[in-house]
Amino acid sequence: QVQLQESGPGLVKPSQTLSLTCTVSGASITFAYFYWTWIRQSPGKGVEWIGSIGTGGSTSYSPSLKSRTSISRDTSKNQFTLQLDSVTPEDTAVYYCARGSRPGVSDRAYWGQGTQVTVSS
Question: How many CB atoms are closer than 10 A to CB 66?
Fold first, then answer.
């Protein structure tokens, strides 16, 4: 059974870069045809897809966040990471990593527990 666990700082200052890591267990991030995804949820915006990386390493991003987002992976550690540049308080949200069969918001059964990130000085 696949398990995903987010990690990273809970507080980021405005204009800085938000960096989160997702550690995957129970499945290889390079096996089969899955997409490994970052999603966020905030009271004001609901659930928002950030971007995904496929098992072959290809990436796709939400058009609204593409200019500030980078998703990469470390296959030796079975981890994938999110970097979001130039954050503002609007980026405050609970961030989730997830697995899905296509880029986008996947079945919630395949999400991690989530980590709260607050952007504030």
Answer: 13
Closest CA relative to residue 46, chosen from 121, 111, 119, 105? 105
DSSP 8-state class, residue 15: T
Euclidean distance between CA atoms 25 and 41, whole angstroms: 23
| C-alpha atoms less than 13 angstroms from C-alpha of 120 in its C-beta half-sphere | 7
- Contact criterion met (CB below 8 Å) for 68 and 85: yes
Q: End-to-end CA distance of the chain: give it in Å, rounded.
A: 39
Give me the phi and psi of 91, to 5 degrees please. -85, 0
20 touches 115 (CB < 8 A): yes
Residue 114: pLDDT over 90:
yes
Is 13's pLDDT higher than 90? yes
Residue 79 and residue 22 in contact, taking contact as beta carbons nearer than 8 Å: yes
Any idea which residue has 């398990």 for tokens? 3
pLDDT digits (tens, 9 = 90+) for 46-87: 899 999 999 999 999 999 999 999 999 999 999 999 999 999
